[in-house]
Each structure stands twice: as C-alpha cells, then as structure tokens.
Amino acid sequence: MDLGTLEQVSNFEWRIPATGAMRVPGVLYASEALVRDMDEKVREQVTNVATLPGIVRASYAMPDAHWGYGFPIGGVAAFDPDAGGVISAGGVGFDISCGVRLLLTGLSAAGIETVKEPLAEALFQAVPAGVGSRGELHLDRGEMNAMLRGGARWAVERGYGEPADLERIEERGSMAGAEPDEVSEHAKQRQQDEVGTLGSGNHYLEVQRVARILDAPTAARFGLAEGDAVVSIHCGSRGLGHQIGTEFLKEMVITAPGRRIVLPDRELACAPIRSSIGARYLGAMRAAINCALANRQVVTHLVRGAFAEVLPEARLRLLYDVSHNTCKVEEHRLEGRTVALYVHRKGATRAFGPGHPDLPGALRDVGQPVLVGGTMGTASYVLVGTERSMERAFGSACHGAGRAMSRHAALRHWRGRALVHELAQRGILIRSRSMRSVAEEAPGAYKDVAAVVDATEVSGLARTVARLEPILCVKG
Fold first, then answer.
1. Could you tell me whether strands 7-10 and 349-350 are parallel, antiparallel, or unpaired per DSSP bridges?
2. In this predicted model, what pLDDT tens digit does every residue of 33-61 receive, in sequence order?
3. Residue-wise over 309-336: b if at least 16 C-beta within 10 A, else e?
4. Does domain 3-475 have CATH number 3.90.1860.10?
5. Is the Cβ–Cβ distance between 428 and 472 less than 8 Å?
6. pLDDT tens, 308-364?
7. 234 is annotated as an active-site residue
8. CA–CA dist 290, 285 (Å, integer)
C-alpha cells in the first residue's frame, strides 16, 4: 500500500482522511511493514465502507487486514440504527460466525509425543474434513430448525458436550433473535449432513503446545501453563452460512437503489437495519451463528471421543469460543453517551475488556480470551481484551495471520506432499484428504503472525497472553 495516501498518527496507527463520499475516516492499526505489504485494495475497501449510511466513528482495519469481498477481511465497522445505519452481508462474510475455540487437555505436550501418531489418526478419522465433508448427524426439518434456534445449547441438550461448555461460549452458546424461517430450504439442505464437520480452506483442528507464556497472571486465570497441550478448533457455519450470504447479497444489491443507497462497490450490498430485508437478514444471520456454534460443539464432542480412545486421562475443558465473522448489537460509548450499535466484524475477533457483562463470571474481572489462529507451520496466540480495547475499535482485535498470497499463487509455489514431509521433519504431523488444500494453506502464504500479534498489542487492541505451536493438524 502506498503510505503517501495515509496520515501517520503513530507507529501503529494510520488514518485515511474523510473525503468525498466518506462519512467517517478510515483507520488502520498496523506497523509500517504490515501496511506496506497490504494490497492497495485494502485502502480502497476501508474507504468504501466509510461511505455507508449510519457508520459511526471510523472504518477500521486490523493488523491482519487483506482484500476481501466488499469489506476487507480484518474490517470492523459499527452502524447506528437511529442514524439510518445499515446491515451488510458483505460486512459479515460468507462463512458466518466462523470462529475458534480452545480446549485445555490437562496434559503436557511432552506426554503426548509418544502417542502423537495414533492421536493424529484418531482425530482424522473422528472429525470429517474437506470440501463437501459430511458427518454422521442427519437433521430433518424439525431438528434443523431446533439447531438453528438453539446453537450449542441444542447440541449439549442432545448429548454433544457438557452444560459447563455453554458458559465459555459467546452468547452462552445460543444467539438470540435467530429466525430459521428466514433461512432458505436450499441453505438448510446444504447443512443437513454437515453439522460436526470442519470443511475446507483455512479451517483446521490442531493439537498445540503452549510454547511461551507472555502474561503469567492472565495465563494462570485461563488455565494455561508453559508445556501444556491444548486443542484448537477453527470452523464455521459451512454451506448454510455461505448460502445465506449469497442469497441476501443478491437481494440487497437489487433493493439498494430503491432505498437511495449508493454502493461504491456492489459487493458492499446492504440494507437499512430498520427495513424488512434488514430484519430478515439479521434473523437468518443469527440462525447461521447458531449453526456455527452447534457445529463447533459437535466437533468438540468428536474430539473428546478421539482423545478418550488414545489418552483417556485427558479432560478437554473449554477455555473459550469466539467468532470472527458476525454482526452483533452491542452497547458502546459514542460522543459521551451509551449507544446500541450494530458492530460488523469480518475477519476480526471480539475483544471485550474486564468487567463486561457478556463475559463468563469466572473471567469477567480479567477480560475476554481472544483466540488468534496462525498456520499449521508457525504459531497461534491467546490474547486478552483490555479496557483500552473498547476505545480503539469497538472492542475488536485481529483474528489470524492474514493471507499474504492468494490460494492460486500458493499452488504455484508449493506442493502439498512436500509440505507435509517438511513439517513432519519439524515434528508437526499433518492429516488431510487434499494435498491441494495443504499447498493452498502453506505457512508461507500467510503474513508473519508474530508481527500481526505484536501490532495488535502495541495498538492497544488486546494484550498477548500465550504463544501456541502446532504438534499435529487435521485439515480439509
């Protein structure tokens, strides 16, 4: 990105002044090196988002931002319904409520080494992964609607997990306001055999070692200690979420001119929050959030079963589950008053600080765990929301390393089998049904996650707690 188009506020904050049709400025949180490496389309998309009706304060980009569909991935924007604010399907994304959950095993990584191979195989066999992957659950119409209303709570009630899990999931495992009737039959058909599956792309199931503790008091509260083994699950709402996004984007594009909404990019298709289509999309999107929460809950159940076969002493207690493709109604301070805003986070993670009422009681005084996924060959991180987080970007932080190279470009640079061998030489086992997918997700196709996390902390978006490194990874 050309730095000449930006105003530098600090070493880790850059501003796009509000000009032309922009209603608010754009703000990028990143180091100079990360900004230079961003595609010029990121600046363009941040600027375009700033033109949407009802946007408040700024159009934000996180340190891992890269070119997305309409909104940049790593984009955050909040809209005031009292000021004609909009809801944008492009601002949520196609994989609605894609997110990460982290499980504590109660075991050491060293203790897992001797059974790493059978554990990798057990997890690979237990959790369906890949394009079009199907699980053992088949949902009829009644169960589908119940799942879309109940989320992880529905899954726990049917024996997939423990009631204690729900306290450690956003929305206590069930998103209010879900309307299954607003989800098309085609979307439901796509999902009827996909609950409890990882899917493809950058989704994964990973056993990790806590390699380094960077905030000992917070790590202790989270139950993390150096040398521990943990399990990370990254997946979303699968075909159902994608179908909802596709259908509503088309409808929003068609109806925008009649509502006098000028779209600088048709991929920014949106509708007034207080409109019939806005209400219908919110109902469908919230149902997709519940789908993703149910999906990760069932995957967790399958993971626990696989561990029980190989390491029956493992406990697999849930630390936290947080999404990074959502729009949520949240109360924030705006010009000296508390306002209910519709906060879009696309490839950005919620990062609420200490004392927030939406946090579990056991974590409320320390802040929300922020789970940042890396790559199968580098590292992931656990961060925590702070009081300052709430002031910087509506309580938002990065969600991962962020792609530096397209999947097509990655395929020209790497071969899946060679990568699997290379990572095995480093002690990292990969299990995947697609060597193409492995190549597309090569660690070298992503930004330096350590640099992204460092920028996130220095920007005041969240504080780093622990660094996690992969032991084994199951991919689609």
1. unpaired
2. 999 999 999 999 999 999 999 999 999 99
3. ebbeebebebbbbbbbbbbbebebeeee
4. yes
5. yes
6. 999 999 999 999 999 999 999 999 999 899 999 999 999 999 999 999 999 999 999
7. no
8. 9
Q: Which amino acid is at 309?
A: E
Please give the C-alpha separations between residue 328 and each of 226, 293, 364, in angstroms, as whole numbers: 34, 15, 19
Query: Based on the number of CB atoms within 10 Å of its own CB, is 108 exposed (0-12), middle (13-18) or buried (19 or more)?
Result: middle
Residue with tokens 């917070």: 218
**Nearest Cα residue to 48 out of 342, 347, 264:** 264
Tokens of 226: 């150096």
Query: What's 465's DSSP letter?
Result: E
Report the SS3 class of residue 192.
coil
Q: How far is CA 291 from CA 149, 170, 281, 334, 447, in A?
A: 8, 13, 15, 32, 30
Q: Which of 242, 332, 344, 399 is catalytic?
A: 399
E-strand ranges in 159-306 read 204-213, 228-235, 270-272
Structure tokens at 425: 């030489």
Would you say the pTM of this structure is higher than 0.70? yes
- Rg value, the chain, Cα: 21
Residue 303's pLDDT is what?
98
